[in-house]
Amino acid sequence: MQRRAMVSAVRRGTSLREVARRFRVALCTVQRWVARSAGLRLDRVEWSDRASGLRTSPKRTPLAIERSILELRRELRDESALGEYGAEAIQRSLLKRGCRGVPAVRTIGRVLARHGAVDHAGRVRRASPPPGWHLPPVARGETELDLFDVIEDFKIEGGPLLDVFTGVSLRGGLPGSWPLASASTMAILSCLMAHWQSYGRPGYAQFDNDTRFQGPHQYPDVFGRVVRFCLQLGVTPVFVPPREFGLQNAIENFNGLYTAKVWRRFHFASLAEFMAQSERYLDARRTRLAARIAQAPARIPWPVQWEFSPQQLPAAKVIFIRRTSAAGGLTLLGHEWPVDRHWCHRLVRAELDLSAGEIHCTALRRRDPEAQPTLAVLPYRYPRHDLKR
Q1: One domain, residues 145 and 262
Q2: Does residue 142 sit in the same domain as residue 258?
Q3: Fewer Cβ atoms within 10 Å of its own Cβ: the N or the C terminal residue of the chain?
Protein backbone atom coordinates (compact mmCIF):
# COMPACT_ATOMS: atom_id res chain seq x y z
CA MET A 1 0.00 0.00 0.00
CA GLN A 2 1.37 3.38 -0.99
CA ARG A 3 0.52 5.15 2.30
CA ARG A 4 2.24 2.49 4.38
CA ALA A 5 5.28 2.59 2.10
CA MET A 6 5.55 6.35 2.48
CA VAL A 7 5.49 6.18 6.29
CA SER A 8 7.97 3.29 6.27
CA ALA A 9 10.38 5.31 4.11
CA VAL A 10 10.17 8.28 6.48
CA ARG A 11 10.86 6.04 9.46
CA ARG A 12 13.96 4.69 7.69
CA GLY A 13 15.36 8.23 7.59
CA THR A 14 14.23 9.58 4.20
CA SER A 15 13.16 13.22 4.32
CA LEU A 16 9.50 14.13 3.91
CA ARG A 17 10.15 16.13 0.74
CA GLU A 18 12.10 13.26 -0.83
CA VAL A 19 9.28 10.80 -0.03
CA ALA A 20 6.73 13.19 -1.52
CA ARG A 21 8.85 13.56 -4.67
CA ARG A 22 9.39 9.79 -4.97
CA PHE A 23 5.70 8.89 -4.59
CA ARG A 24 4.49 11.91 -6.59
CA VAL A 25 2.18 13.27 -3.91
CA ALA A 26 1.93 16.58 -2.10
CA LEU A 27 4.10 17.21 0.92
CA CYS A 28 1.02 17.69 3.12
CA THR A 29 -0.15 14.18 2.21
CA VAL A 30 3.04 12.64 3.55
CA GLN A 31 2.84 14.83 6.66
CA ARG A 32 -0.78 13.78 7.31
CA TRP A 33 -0.08 10.04 7.17
CA VAL A 34 3.10 10.36 9.24
CA ALA A 35 1.12 12.25 11.90
CA ARG A 36 -1.75 9.71 11.85
CA SER A 37 0.64 6.77 12.31
CA ALA A 38 2.75 8.42 15.01
CA GLY A 39 3.49 6.06 17.93
CA LEU A 40 1.80 3.06 16.28
CA ARG A 41 3.09 -0.08 14.62
CA LEU A 42 2.42 0.00 10.89
CA ASP A 43 0.15 -3.03 11.06
CA ARG A 44 -2.09 -1.27 13.57
CA VAL A 45 -2.61 1.97 11.65
CA GLU A 46 -6.01 2.68 10.06
CA TRP A 47 -4.99 3.39 6.48
CA SER A 48 -8.48 4.00 5.06
CA ASP A 49 -9.77 7.52 4.38
CA ARG A 50 -12.12 9.10 6.89
CA ALA A 51 -13.92 12.38 7.09
CA SER A 52 -12.20 15.22 8.79
CA GLY A 53 -13.59 16.42 12.09
CA LEU A 54 -14.95 14.64 15.11
CA ARG A 55 -16.28 11.10 14.92
CA THR A 56 -19.50 12.15 16.67
CA SER A 57 -21.19 15.55 16.90
CA PRO A 58 -20.58 17.37 20.18
CA LYS A 59 -24.29 18.32 20.18
CA ARG A 60 -25.52 14.75 19.96
CA THR A 61 -27.66 13.53 22.86
CA PRO A 62 -25.48 11.57 25.30
CA LEU A 63 -25.84 7.84 25.13
CA ALA A 64 -27.01 7.63 28.76
CA ILE A 65 -29.93 9.96 28.05
CA GLU A 66 -30.84 8.00 24.92
CA ARG A 67 -30.96 4.81 26.98
CA SER A 68 -33.14 6.45 29.62
CA ILE A 69 -35.52 7.66 26.90
CA LEU A 70 -35.87 4.16 25.47
CA GLU A 71 -36.34 2.59 28.92
CA LEU A 72 -38.96 5.20 29.83
CA ARG A 73 -40.80 4.53 26.57
CA ARG A 74 -41.02 0.82 27.41
CA GLU A 75 -42.18 1.64 30.93
CA LEU A 76 -44.90 4.05 29.75
CA ARG A 77 -46.07 1.60 27.09
CA ASP A 78 -46.59 -1.16 29.66
CA GLU A 79 -47.71 0.80 32.74
CA SER A 80 -49.08 4.22 31.71
CA ALA A 81 -52.75 4.72 32.60
CA LEU A 82 -53.23 6.93 29.54
CA GLY A 83 -51.44 4.51 27.24
CA GLU A 84 -49.33 7.36 25.82
CA TYR A 85 -45.65 6.71 25.26
CA GLY A 86 -44.64 9.09 22.47
CA ALA A 87 -42.09 11.91 22.55
CA GLU A 88 -44.37 14.37 24.36
CA ALA A 89 -45.34 11.83 27.00
CA ILE A 90 -41.67 10.92 27.56
CA GLN A 91 -40.71 14.59 27.96
CA ARG A 92 -43.51 15.15 30.49
CA SER A 93 -42.36 12.15 32.52
CA LEU A 94 -38.72 13.31 32.49
CA LEU A 95 -39.72 16.79 33.67
CA LYS A 96 -41.98 15.33 36.38
CA ARG A 97 -39.07 13.25 37.66
CA GLY A 98 -36.89 16.37 37.91
CA CYS A 99 -34.28 15.22 35.41
CA ARG A 100 -31.70 17.78 34.27
CA GLY A 101 -31.06 18.63 30.64
CA VAL A 102 -34.36 17.21 29.36
CA PRO A 103 -34.22 17.15 25.54
CA ALA A 104 -36.81 18.87 23.34
CA VAL A 105 -39.75 16.90 21.96
CA ARG A 106 -38.24 16.81 18.46
CA THR A 107 -34.92 15.58 19.86
CA ILE A 108 -36.70 12.77 21.72
CA GLY A 109 -38.54 11.93 18.52
CA ARG A 110 -35.27 11.68 16.59
CA VAL A 111 -33.82 9.42 19.28
CA LEU A 112 -36.82 7.11 19.05
CA ALA A 113 -36.63 7.06 15.25
CA ARG A 114 -32.87 6.39 15.29
CA HIS A 115 -33.43 3.29 17.42
CA GLY A 116 -36.53 2.16 15.52
CA ALA A 117 -38.78 2.70 18.55
CA VAL A 118 -41.77 4.04 16.55
CA ASP A 119 -45.14 2.48 15.89
CA HIS A 120 -46.50 4.50 12.99
CA ALA A 121 -46.02 3.25 9.45
CA GLY A 122 -44.79 5.41 6.61
CA ARG A 123 -47.11 6.82 3.99
CA VAL A 124 -48.31 4.20 1.54
CA ARG A 125 -47.82 5.42 -2.02
CA ARG A 126 -49.88 3.53 -4.54
CA ALA A 127 -49.32 3.54 -8.26
CA SER A 128 -51.50 6.00 -10.15
CA PRO A 129 -54.19 4.52 -12.40
CA PRO A 130 -53.53 4.35 -16.16
CA PRO A 131 -54.57 7.31 -18.33
CA GLY A 132 -58.28 7.23 -19.09
CA TRP A 133 -58.89 4.57 -16.43
CA HIS A 134 -62.51 5.70 -15.98
CA LEU A 135 -63.21 4.68 -19.60
CA PRO A 136 -62.04 1.08 -20.22
CA PRO A 137 -61.66 1.35 -24.05
CA VAL A 138 -59.43 4.41 -23.58
CA ALA A 139 -57.40 2.75 -20.82
CA ARG A 140 -56.79 -0.26 -23.08
CA GLY A 141 -55.60 2.03 -25.89
CA GLU A 142 -58.40 1.04 -28.25
CA THR A 143 -59.66 4.56 -28.93
CA GLU A 144 -58.74 8.18 -28.32
CA LEU A 145 -60.19 10.66 -25.82
CA ASP A 146 -60.26 14.40 -26.49
CA LEU A 147 -60.56 16.73 -23.49
CA PHE A 148 -61.90 20.29 -23.86
CA ASP A 149 -62.15 23.32 -21.60
CA VAL A 150 -62.53 27.11 -21.66
CA ILE A 151 -60.02 29.59 -20.20
CA GLU A 152 -61.93 32.77 -19.47
CA ASP A 153 -61.21 36.48 -19.14
CA PHE A 154 -57.88 37.10 -20.85
CA LYS A 155 -57.57 40.89 -20.88
CA ILE A 156 -55.97 42.74 -23.78
CA GLU A 157 -54.68 46.15 -22.69
CA GLY A 158 -57.17 48.76 -23.74
CA GLY A 159 -59.37 46.09 -25.31
CA PRO A 160 -62.05 43.58 -24.40
CA LEU A 161 -61.91 40.39 -22.36
CA LEU A 162 -61.17 37.24 -24.37
CA ASP A 163 -61.83 33.53 -23.91
CA VAL A 164 -59.77 30.62 -25.18
CA PHE A 165 -61.36 27.27 -26.02
CA THR A 166 -58.69 24.59 -25.53
CA GLY A 167 -58.42 20.90 -26.28
CA VAL A 168 -55.90 18.08 -26.04
CA SER A 169 -56.01 14.36 -26.79
CA LEU A 170 -55.18 12.04 -23.91
CA ARG A 171 -53.09 9.44 -25.76
CA GLY A 172 -51.45 11.48 -28.48
CA GLY A 173 -51.30 14.89 -26.79
CA LEU A 174 -52.74 16.54 -29.94
CA PRO A 175 -53.26 20.17 -28.87
CA GLY A 176 -55.83 22.72 -29.96
CA SER A 177 -56.64 26.28 -28.86
CA TRP A 178 -58.98 28.88 -30.27
CA PRO A 179 -58.89 32.47 -28.92
CA LEU A 180 -62.43 33.84 -29.11
CA ALA A 181 -64.11 37.13 -28.40
CA SER A 182 -66.71 35.06 -26.54
CA ALA A 183 -66.74 31.30 -26.03
CA SER A 184 -70.40 30.81 -26.88
CA THR A 185 -71.87 27.43 -27.73
CA MET A 186 -71.96 28.24 -31.45
CA ALA A 187 -68.30 29.31 -31.40
CA ILE A 188 -67.36 26.08 -29.59
CA LEU A 189 -69.22 24.00 -32.19
CA SER A 190 -67.31 25.77 -34.99
CA CYS A 191 -64.00 25.02 -33.27
CA LEU A 192 -64.90 21.35 -32.73
CA MET A 193 -65.90 21.00 -36.38
CA ALA A 194 -62.69 22.59 -37.65
CA HIS A 195 -60.53 20.48 -35.32
CA TRP A 196 -62.16 17.14 -36.13
CA GLN A 197 -62.31 17.89 -39.84
CA SER A 198 -58.54 18.41 -39.84
CA TYR A 199 -57.44 15.56 -37.56
CA GLY A 200 -60.37 13.14 -37.37
CA ARG A 201 -62.83 12.28 -34.63
CA PRO A 202 -62.01 10.56 -31.31
CA GLY A 203 -64.07 7.84 -29.71
CA TYR A 204 -64.84 10.02 -26.68
CA ALA A 205 -64.96 13.77 -25.99
CA GLN A 206 -64.71 14.88 -22.35
CA PHE A 207 -66.08 18.13 -20.91
CA ASP A 208 -66.85 19.57 -17.51
CA ASN A 209 -70.40 20.46 -16.42
CA ASP A 210 -70.42 23.92 -18.03
CA THR A 211 -73.82 24.74 -19.50
CA ARG A 212 -72.13 25.55 -22.82
CA PHE A 213 -71.20 21.88 -23.06
CA GLN A 214 -73.92 19.95 -21.26
CA GLY A 215 -76.89 22.30 -21.73
CA PRO A 216 -79.04 24.31 -19.29
CA HIS A 217 -79.23 22.97 -15.76
CA GLN A 218 -82.48 24.64 -14.67
CA TYR A 219 -84.60 22.11 -16.55
CA PRO A 220 -84.50 18.30 -16.27
CA ASP A 221 -83.71 15.97 -19.17
CA VAL A 222 -81.96 18.62 -21.29
CA PHE A 223 -79.16 17.82 -23.75
CA GLY A 224 -77.34 20.80 -25.23
CA ARG A 225 -76.16 21.32 -28.78
CA VAL A 226 -72.64 20.11 -28.02
CA VAL A 227 -74.07 16.77 -26.85
CA ARG A 228 -76.22 16.47 -29.98
CA PHE A 229 -73.28 17.48 -32.17
CA CYS A 230 -71.06 14.74 -30.68
CA LEU A 231 -73.73 12.05 -30.85
CA GLN A 232 -74.54 12.80 -34.47
CA LEU A 233 -70.85 12.33 -35.28
CA GLY A 234 -70.60 9.05 -33.38
CA VAL A 235 -68.50 10.57 -30.58
CA THR A 236 -69.51 9.64 -27.02
CA PRO A 237 -69.63 12.74 -24.77
CA VAL A 238 -68.28 12.35 -21.23
CA PHE A 239 -69.02 14.85 -18.45
CA VAL A 240 -66.85 14.98 -15.33
CA PRO A 241 -66.95 17.21 -12.22
CA PRO A 242 -64.46 20.10 -12.59
CA ARG A 243 -62.94 19.68 -9.12
CA GLU A 244 -62.64 15.88 -9.20
CA PHE A 245 -59.00 14.92 -8.75
CA GLY A 246 -57.21 13.50 -11.76
CA LEU A 247 -59.95 13.27 -14.38
CA GLN A 248 -59.12 16.62 -16.00
CA ASN A 249 -55.35 16.57 -15.45
CA ALA A 250 -54.43 16.46 -19.15
CA ILE A 251 -56.45 19.53 -20.13
CA GLU A 252 -55.56 21.46 -16.96
CA ASN A 253 -51.86 20.84 -17.59
CA PHE A 254 -52.21 22.02 -21.16
CA ASN A 255 -54.11 25.13 -20.03
CA GLY A 256 -51.28 26.03 -17.65
CA LEU A 257 -48.65 25.40 -20.31
CA TYR A 258 -50.55 27.42 -22.92
CA THR A 259 -51.00 30.35 -20.53
CA ALA A 260 -47.31 30.38 -19.62
CA LYS A 261 -45.86 29.88 -23.12
CA VAL A 262 -48.24 32.03 -25.15
CA TRP A 263 -50.23 34.53 -23.13
CA ARG A 264 -47.64 35.58 -20.54
CA ARG A 265 -44.66 35.70 -22.91
CA PHE A 266 -45.94 38.36 -25.27
CA HIS A 267 -47.86 41.61 -25.33
CA PHE A 268 -50.85 41.47 -27.65
CA ALA A 269 -52.52 44.57 -29.03
CA SER A 270 -55.42 42.73 -30.65
CA LEU A 271 -57.21 39.42 -30.90
CA ALA A 272 -55.63 38.86 -34.34
CA GLU A 273 -52.10 39.03 -32.88
CA PHE A 274 -53.10 36.63 -30.11
CA MET A 275 -54.54 34.17 -32.64
CA ALA A 276 -51.42 34.34 -34.83
CA GLN A 277 -49.07 33.61 -31.91
CA SER A 278 -51.36 30.85 -30.69
CA GLU A 279 -51.23 29.14 -34.09
CA ARG A 280 -47.43 29.40 -34.16
CA TYR A 281 -47.23 27.71 -30.78
CA LEU A 282 -49.63 24.93 -31.80
CA ASP A 283 -47.68 24.19 -34.99
CA ALA A 284 -44.44 23.94 -33.02
CA ARG A 285 -45.99 21.72 -30.35
CA ARG A 286 -47.58 19.37 -32.91
CA THR A 287 -44.20 19.04 -34.59
CA ARG A 288 -42.53 18.22 -31.28
CA LEU A 289 -45.20 15.61 -30.45
CA ALA A 290 -45.37 14.15 -33.95
CA ALA A 291 -44.10 10.70 -32.90
CA ARG A 292 -46.51 10.47 -29.97
CA ILE A 293 -49.44 11.64 -32.10
CA ALA A 294 -48.61 9.04 -34.74
CA GLN A 295 -48.56 6.24 -32.13
CA ALA A 296 -51.94 7.20 -30.65
CA PRO A 297 -55.10 5.22 -31.51
CA ALA A 298 -56.39 5.93 -35.00
CA ARG A 299 -58.94 8.73 -35.28
CA ILE A 300 -62.15 8.38 -37.29
CA PRO A 301 -62.27 10.36 -40.57
CA TRP A 302 -64.79 13.16 -40.96
CA PRO A 303 -68.00 11.93 -42.66
CA VAL A 304 -68.71 13.02 -46.22
CA GLN A 305 -71.66 15.39 -46.79
CA TRP A 306 -72.56 15.66 -43.14
CA GLU A 307 -74.76 18.40 -41.69
CA PHE A 308 -75.54 19.16 -38.08
CA SER A 309 -79.20 19.10 -37.05
CA PRO A 310 -79.57 20.92 -33.68
CA GLN A 311 -83.08 19.55 -33.12
CA GLN A 312 -82.06 15.89 -33.47
CA LEU A 313 -80.91 13.69 -30.59
CA PRO A 314 -79.55 10.29 -31.69
CA ALA A 315 -80.35 7.26 -29.53
CA ALA A 316 -76.79 6.70 -28.33
CA LYS A 317 -74.79 6.80 -25.08
CA VAL A 318 -73.89 9.77 -22.87
CA ILE A 319 -71.51 9.18 -19.94
CA PHE A 320 -71.54 11.08 -16.65
CA ILE A 321 -68.83 10.68 -13.97
CA ARG A 322 -70.41 11.56 -10.64
CA ARG A 323 -69.84 11.15 -6.90
CA THR A 324 -72.65 9.66 -4.86
CA SER A 325 -74.31 11.38 -1.90
CA ALA A 326 -74.24 10.38 1.77
CA ALA A 327 -77.20 8.09 1.08
CA GLY A 328 -75.57 6.49 -1.95
CA GLY A 329 -77.73 8.42 -4.41
CA LEU A 330 -76.92 10.16 -7.67
CA THR A 331 -78.01 13.54 -9.07
CA LEU A 332 -78.32 13.33 -12.83
CA LEU A 333 -80.27 15.31 -15.44
CA GLY A 334 -82.26 17.06 -12.73
CA HIS A 335 -83.35 13.84 -10.99
CA GLU A 336 -82.29 11.94 -7.89
CA TRP A 337 -81.45 8.28 -8.50
CA PRO A 338 -80.85 5.62 -5.81
CA VAL A 339 -77.66 3.70 -6.66
CA ASP A 340 -76.24 1.81 -3.66
CA ARG A 341 -76.56 2.77 0.00
CA HIS A 342 -73.21 1.12 0.70
CA TRP A 343 -71.40 3.16 -2.00
CA CYS A 344 -71.48 6.59 -0.35
CA HIS A 345 -69.35 9.56 -1.44
CA ARG A 346 -67.70 7.38 -4.08
CA LEU A 347 -67.14 7.74 -7.81
CA VAL A 348 -69.65 6.28 -10.25
CA ARG A 349 -69.67 6.07 -14.05
CA ALA A 350 -73.28 6.51 -15.15
CA GLU A 351 -73.73 5.42 -18.78
CA LEU A 352 -77.04 6.73 -20.09
CA ASP A 353 -78.16 4.52 -22.98
CA LEU A 354 -80.91 6.42 -24.80
CA SER A 355 -81.54 3.48 -27.10
CA ALA A 356 -82.06 0.91 -24.31
CA GLY A 357 -83.74 3.42 -21.97
CA GLU A 358 -81.53 2.73 -18.96
CA ILE A 359 -78.69 4.13 -16.87
CA HIS A 360 -75.90 1.66 -16.16
CA CYS A 361 -74.06 2.66 -12.94
CA THR A 362 -70.53 1.32 -12.43
CA ALA A 363 -68.29 1.70 -9.38
CA LEU A 364 -64.94 3.43 -9.90
CA ARG A 365 -61.92 3.12 -7.60
CA ARG A 366 -58.51 4.62 -8.25
CA ARG A 367 -56.91 2.04 -5.97
CA ASP A 368 -58.20 -0.80 -8.17
CA PRO A 369 -59.00 0.78 -11.55
CA GLU A 370 -59.59 -2.53 -13.35
CA ALA A 371 -62.33 -3.68 -10.94
CA GLN A 372 -65.46 -1.82 -12.04
CA PRO A 373 -68.49 -3.75 -10.77
CA THR A 374 -72.06 -2.84 -11.68
CA LEU A 375 -73.91 -1.08 -8.87
CA ALA A 376 -77.33 -0.59 -10.44
CA VAL A 377 -79.22 -0.50 -13.72
CA LEU A 378 -81.85 2.24 -13.56
CA PRO A 379 -84.73 2.63 -16.04
CA TYR A 380 -84.80 5.97 -17.86
CA ARG A 381 -87.36 7.33 -20.28
CA TYR A 382 -86.51 10.41 -22.29
CA PRO A 383 -89.69 12.51 -22.12
CA ARG A 384 -89.31 14.49 -25.37
CA HIS A 385 -90.02 13.70 -28.98
CA ASP A 386 -86.73 14.68 -30.64
CA LEU A 387 -85.08 11.29 -30.00
CA LYS A 388 -84.08 9.58 -33.24
CA ARG A 389 -83.77 5.81 -33.10
Answers
A1: yes
A2: yes
A3: C
Residue 79 lies in a domain: yes
Helix (H) or strand (E) holding 226: helix 225-232
Say yes or no: 364 and 223 in one domain. Answer: no
Q: At what angle do helices 185-199 and 225-232 cross, to 10 degrees?
A: 20
Same structural domain for residues 143 and 106? no
DSSP 147: E
Strand partners, 317: 353
Work out how many domains the chain is built from and give that number.
4
Give residue 331's domain range.
Answer: 315-388
pLDDT in tens, the chain (389 residues): 788 888 889 998 899 999 999 888 999 999 988 988 888 888 888 877 766 666 667 777 888 888 989 999 999 989 888 888 989 999 999 998 888 888 999 999 999 988 888 887 667 778 889 999 999 999 999 999 999 999 998 988 888 899 999 999 999 999 999 999 999 999 999 999 999 999 999 999 999 999 999 999 888 999 999 999 999 999 999 999 877 888 999 999 999 999 999 999 998 988 999 999 999 999 999 999 999 999 999 999 999 989 999 999 999 999 999 999 999 999 999 999 999 999 999 999 999 999 999 999 999 999 899 999 999 999 999 998 888 87
Same domain, 181 and 281: yes
Reported residue count of the chain is: 389
DSSP reduced 3-state for 254 = helix
Query: For residues 16 and 18, what is the distance between their CA atoms, to the nearest angstrom?
Result: 5
| Beta-strand runs (E) in 172-327 | 175-180, 204-207, 236-239, 313-314, 317-323
Alpha-carbon distances, residue 120 vs 109, 112, 123, 309, 343 (angstroms): 12, 12, 9, 62, 29
Question: d(Cα 226, Cα 224) in Å, to the nearest integer?
Answer: 6
220 within some domain: yes
Q: Minimal CA–CA distance to 281: which of 297, 307, 263?
A: 263
Contact 262, 278 (CB under 8 A): yes
Do the Cβ atoms of 199 and 299 come closer than 8 Å? yes
Can you tell me the distance from the alpha carbon of 157 to that of 96, in angstroms, rounded to the nearest whole number? 68
101: left (phi over 0), alpha (psi -120 to 50) or beta: left
Which residues share a beta bridge with 236? 204
